[in-house]
Records
---
Amino acid sequence: EKLLEIKDLHAGVEDKEILKGLNLSVNKGEVHVILGPNGSGKSTLMNIIMGHPKYQVTSGTMEFEGEDMSGLKTFERARKGLFLSFQTPEEIPGITVENMIRTAKQTITGDKVKLVPFRKELKAQMQELKMKPEYAQRYMNVGFSGGEKKRNEILQLLMLQPKLALLDETDSGLDVDAVQIVSEGVAKFHNENNSCLIITHNTRILEKLKVDKVHVLMNGQIVEEGGAELIEDINSRGFTHILDAQNEAK
Ligand code: ADP
Ligand code: MG
Ligand code: MG
């Protein structure tokens, strides 16, 4: 069952083309990984899937559950079940963690989320993530350490239960223990009814997950696809040999 389908996508920012004919398809229940060198367009792709207003799609199609997503605003995409965890989570002074997640949940479900049961669930999830309960009343990410910010991202994932979780280097800059928590958190989130699209340079985050497909993004295109074995291949041989192999084939 197709969840996300991107065909021949051309897109960019400020008149600069970054994605140059990208194809990508994710089925329900699958875990996909995108690997690629710095500057290849990975974060741009994630932002474009979420409908970030700074980026422009110039051609190609993007469907979610068989529905064209063009023209949908970010909150409308969130309502459809998309969630993006950022490389650098934002600090939001004045809005507590609890308020932020509750408001997001209300926006997504279109329903009022009752405080008492919500608090109970939040507390339980925070406990699992080894977050101190008082963090619920702290301002979003303000004064949080790198690891605490990432735990907070996973907390949102578990509370909001999106159909497709887009994780953009959620594990970057984390110590070993924090990577473990992120890894367990993602594994806890994932089941046969949702999907994950993960950008990472650190394959330790994948240890607790069964990876269905790996895509290599270079120069704005998916240049290679394969199973989990592609991760090892790239870890040992790097990215350039893929382009070398393709140039030789031409
Ligand atoms: P990755 O996440 O793979 O490291 P990005 O998607 O962040 O790559 O960036 C891809 C390319 O687009 C880079 O060359 C980057 O400099 C450029 N780029 C990204 N965002 C902007 C922006 N807001 N303005 C101009 N160029 C940008
Ligand atoms: Mg980068
Ligand atoms: Mg990036």
---
Amino acid sequence: MAKALIIGAGGVGGVVAHKTALAHDVFDEVVLASRTKSRCDAIAAQVKELHGRTIRTAQVDADDVAQTVKLLEAERPDILINVALPYQDLTLMDACLQAGVDYLDTANYEPPDVAKFEYSWQWAYQERFQKAGRMALLGSGFDPGVTNVFCAYAQKHLLDTVEYVDIVDCNGGSHGKAFATNFNPEINIREITARGRYWEQGEWKETDPLSVSAMFDYPGVGERKSFLLYHEELESLAKNLRGLKRIRFWMTFGEAYLQHLRVLENVGMTRIDEVEFDGKKIVPIKFLRALLPDPASLAAGYTGKTSIGCLCEGVKDGKRKRFFIYNICDHAETYKEVRAQAISYTTGVPAVTGAIMMVTGKWKGHGVFNMEQLDPDPFLEDVGKRGLPWHVEERPLP
Ligand code: NDP
């Protein structure tokens, strides 16, 4: 039996807490720690009420390596599940190395003062994790996460070479608010307002933010306009898929959402640099975050479904083929089970499955790993049973 330490008590942290508590065949102890302990206590009370299991809570500032090492040494968990913010990835990896604990996260490192995310900072830990005999699993959410594993599955079972990949992500749900983001508003807005980027024939190609769109027919939702975005799994998949010629990422946004975003950008509310206000320095996007709904609070009354998958085209036994591998998740169902909306759920469940792969030794190794570098089969079997069933369909060639 294993012990998990979860860091971060937001929308995703709540799901991870519920799902690790429910996985009593694997975890006999769960500790939920975050910057604001009262949020951990509220989640622990909900876990007790819904599932009758007790999880412990703690306070920690994950930006502070010494404080985190102290918590790790006191708790001695088998794994640290980082579902705080991307800003904490490096300090938490440092703390894991110092305390000798395995590490998992769902989003790659982002420096707070530059709206840029890439794996270089975390890949630079490769040698240190290898030497320490520890494992770090990067990006074990849905996208990145399950999408990487879908690509690994296509490479292992469906195609000899995976040449073209389009990752398509649709939230066909409705939370009834005029404007809200489904995960941390600051991280979400930084991602969406960045320049688009995709990989083709060995080169990165850039596009203006949200300037390229296409229609996709999402199972369970229907046709939706989808916009080309840069997303972090493109970086590792471009490196790790054999024979790849092009990989792109698409996400749906409604017109009202885009209109709000345009206005917020035009008036400077999405800026990430400091501005002077009333004799104080403030960062507009952080102020905006304080005004927007907490992603976890959207869960009650959220209706509709998410539909996310990978369209993979390539060659099998000399013939061109195209497959779509996807999951559909219902906001109201996830609320019933763990009081969360489907975006938090589709991120939190794969984090728990990734952690289970590591603590049970189904996935093992020393160093820093992206999801597609490990065997997709045990992961997909577990994630399907744990709440995210997935499907494979052969699709006509374009
Ligand atoms: P939230 O903003 O709801 O929660 C973040 C939590 O982290 C809060 O509890 C916050 O504490 C805590 N936190 C922030 N800074 C610190 C710190 N210095 N020390 C300790 N705790 C801290 O975010 P979400 O739950 O929506 O998202 C969590 C993560 O999941 C993000 O990294 C996000 O990018 C990632 N994600 C990944 C997806 C995927 O598919 N791979 C999809 C969606 C999200 P406090 O309560 O005090 O603010």
---
Amino acid sequence: LPELTGDLDTILEWADEFRTLGVRANADNPEDAELSRGFGAEGIGLCRTEHMFLGDRKQIIQTFILNDDELIREKAVADLYEAQVGDFYGMFKAMDGLPVIVRLLDPPLHEFLESPRELDVGIAKLEVSGASADVIAEKRALLEKIDGFAEQNPMLGMRGCRLGIVYPILPVMQVRAIATACARLQKEGFAPKPEIMIPLVSVLPELAKLRGVAEATIAEVAEAEGVELSIPVGTMIELPRAAVTANEIATEADFFSFGTNDLTQTTFGFSRDDVEGEFVPQYLAEHLLPYNPFATIDPGVAKLVEMGVELGHEGNPDIVCGVCGEHGGDPESIHTFNRIGLDYVSCSPYRVPVARLAAAQAAIQQR
Ligand code: PEP
Ligand code: MG
């Protein structure tokens, strides 16, 4: 793994003496976690668990979503549970002694279900190649089911906490895996510090319900494993409604992490998936702003973050507030977050050194 050495390491150590903003990393595998740690990350601010559900596991999610049969669903979840215990064990061990915020599954469903268009093409090819009627019928049935789930705007649909509200068996599985990995490491003499984060919350009852599920599951594991578990539960603030009602939401949150990617998308009403496309970047640059608001925090979005922090403290004076959108690694945005009074920024591993430096510069300039 690359490491910081020589003058750069020394300069960043000096920077650390001045900065007041914490710097964490966004990572979802032990290698990236170790890499971030080597770059000076003080924890993992965002572990995107949907990234752990790629490859074969993607198929398991599809099986789960498309099947009404309880037994098939339970089998899929049991398979996922086994895999997740290992995932979390590796993450917590790599970050021994430092906080790791694990975000519960936040997959827009179109990323987990087979593409209807590709399936359709596949069926046409099967027909041409003279495949058996049974095979073709099976594919057609699959296509029909997937079509039934297709949403016009998957990024505004069944994702984030909404998935866990509809299928509580999923958050139970993930929290059980987090708590079990934590318990095992504690018994082995390590000091794991997991935290659980609920994504895409817009109203208090969503968080309250999933927090309840998480707490009950943690308590069950603690009893079964015969250990004490202390695992904070918090939420992403990534929808304007959550930011402006943060005083309510904070009553059920130990921490807030501002998801400025989605917050920018939903505040402007521009799709974040089209920033690389034709219209959005051109329109933004020609008619709206001299910067890309998905890279550098926009003052309007920053105002929502500031409001969220202030209101959040009204609802819970001890709430810890950070940011884990892409802006967390952008120097200009870091100056804004420092002024707003966030506790930490979390960014991709390779941005950690730059974030440490920018946080120190912001602290010095804003003294
Ligand atoms: C965000 O929305 O800013 C965020 C960090 O979550 P994700 O990018 O995974 O949607
Ligand atoms: Mg998000």
